[in-house]
Write a structure and sequence with these properties.
By secondary structure, this protein is an alpha+beta fold. It has a single domain, classed as Glutaredoxin (3-Layer(aba) Sandwich), CATH 3.40.30. The chain is built from five helices and four strands, in the order αβααβαββα. Strand 3 and strand 4 form a beta hairpin. The radius of gyration is 13 Å and the shape is globular. The chain starts with a helix and ends with a helix.
């Protein structure tokens, strides 16, 4: 969990995506997440977290539906949504939390 604290404490927006490799919707989001990462460049980060390998973190954040997406900035969750999202929406949300 201490690594998680370091990760979310950045001044850049961080998009966390909780997924499971066996979930079809989670897998269909991969190209979308690549587009978001490419569009943000060094102005934000996109990190996928496998719920099977990170049960404690998933439980602590009450992740019940996959995929669950969260944006953190300066250690604070500024947005959270479950279910499939499109790249333009995610890019816009990330850009809203720049600087």
């Amino acid at each position: 969990m201490s690594k998680f604290g370091e990760l979310i404490n950045d001044k850049l927006p961080l998009l966390l995506v909780f997924y499971n490799t066996e979930d079809e919707v989670s897998n269909s989001m991969s190209p979308v997440l690549k587009d978001v990462a490419a569009a943000m460049g060094d102005k934000g980060k996109v990190i996928k977290i496998d719920t099977e390998k990170n049960l404690k973190l998933s439980d602590a954040l009450r992740v019940k539906v996959l995929p669950t997406l969260m944006i953190y900035k300066l250690g604070e969750m500024v947005w959270r949504q479950s279910g499939e999202q499109d790249a333009n929406t995610l890019i816009s949300l990330m850009q809203d939390h720049l600087a």
